[in-house]
Specification:
The protein is of the alpha+beta class. Helix content is 25%, strand content 44%.
């Protein structure tokens, strides 16, 4: 897929999704629906480092599995999202489920494209 195809898939999706650089964990592109799972609007978090939202070992395990398999389907993981509590941004831990997470090359970088993200705090 070209960069344009990936961006179009994200921006036209109607579901929470985004593409994140493997090395830096910076969000490069996100759908407007990402507010449902991140707590923030896409334009306010694009270009942001997401490391504070992840336990380092959980992220390392997810990235390892993804790089070995190329694509994960119906993937579940624990991470944090932002929440505005009385005018102050805080993070809250959630259990997430993604329809797919796949390895893509975007803007010349190896990335993970997480598509169809939902909070599944069961």
């Amino acid at each position: 897929m070209s960069d344009g195809d990936i961006a179009k898939r994200i921006l036209d999706s109607g579901v929470s999704c985004g593409v994140v650089d493997f090395k830096t964990n910076i969000l490069l592109c996100a759908s407007q629906e990402v507010i449902k799972t991140s707590g923030r609007k896409a334009f306010s978090i694009q270009g942001k480092d997401l490391n504070d939202l992840w336990d380092k070992q959980i992220l390392a395990d997810l990235n390892r599995d993804l790089q070995q398999q190329g694509k994960l389907t119906d993937a579940c993981y624990t991470a944090k999202s932002w929440a505005n509590k009385e005018g102050t941004w805080q993070t809250e831990e959630h259990r997430f489920r993604a329809q797919t997470i796949e390895v893509v090359k975007f803007l010349g970088r190896w990335c993970r494209l997480t598509y169809g993200i939902e909070i599944s705090d069961d």
